[in-house]
Amino acid sequence: xxxxxxxxxxxxxxxxxxxxxxxxxxxxxxxxxxxxxxxxxxxxxxxxxxxxxxxxxxxxxxxxxxxxxxxxxxxxxxxxxxxxxxxxxxxxxxxxxxxxxxxxxxxxxxxxxxxxxxxxxxxxxxxxxxxxxxxxxxxxxxxxxxxxxxxxxxxxxxxxxxxxxxxxxxxxxxxxxxxxxxxxxxxxxxxxxxxxxxxxxxxxxxxxxxxxxxxxxxxxxxxxxxxxxxxxxxxxxxxxxxxxxxxxxxxxxxxxxxxxxxxxxxxxxxxxxxxxxxxxxxxxxxxxxxxxxxxxxxxxxxxxxxxxxxxxxxxxxxxxxxxxxxxxxxxxxxxxxxxxxxxxxxxxxxxxxxxxxxxxxxxxxxx
Length: 367
Hints:
The structure is a single chain. The protein has 13 helices and 16 strands. α7 (about 195-205) packs across α9 (about 235-250) and α10 crosses α12 (about 340-350). It has one domain: TIM Barrel. By secondary structure, the chain is α/β, with parallel strands linked by helices.
């Protein structure tokens, strides 16, 4: 702890940019490295989850991520569950150059009610493609549409918000009791975000299969500007990883996956997140560079169209390649924004590790 002044002390915390990974005395061939990740009953080829944002996830791109070997999560509060055909609306948003006007237009578009039958249709479309199905709701809409999501046959139910706690207090609305809710569901739940040891421990005690660490990437800087809230991700992931270890002992062996969700813009950040203790990483901005991303080069999260307090304008990216190339390569650039899976595989090989779980023990230093 450090003194800020006479009446306030603060813990020092670090971002991914503040740390680097240290190679060991041993290196390995890339062919010896396995990036497979198992959560609940499903196994994936690599530990990356496509974030539930309209700019990167449509039913088609969720299917594409699944066919590449990863998990794509559809935003069940987005345009795909409000409109029969949102493609013209996505094109309209992309054509607006002024961000203020774009925010106003998005606020109007996202004011359309969520339709339960469209949730069912979108989930069924992904299911019929033969890939894992995952959908995300905010805590505010979870109780209303939970039965619809569960009935749609999802493999994972994601409850994702800027900050999600196990103890929300409100005098005007009945709060979501996460522990009762999760235990009543027949599908595994991934919930977050959180940023501290204690908050993560409370979420793990609800019965969640995974906990999201962070505020969802794209809105992090704006959240700091508007709310004064920020998450130094290296410290946050390391603290939540400690909560995972303590909960493993407390529960008699129940393992909860830690998924970094924020400040992951390049392949090196993915490696650093796992080095700090994450089991997997939720990826957003890198996928917005895909030529087949729904945002057409623009990227935004749910905070960008909040009806009364938008946080985070759209971000413009230069399209680099297909979604498959962004994930699996080949890369045509030298800045860590393509072939994310190949880069992580090379990092493990360079540091002498063959499995992601082992790689969590790699040495890191402050740079």
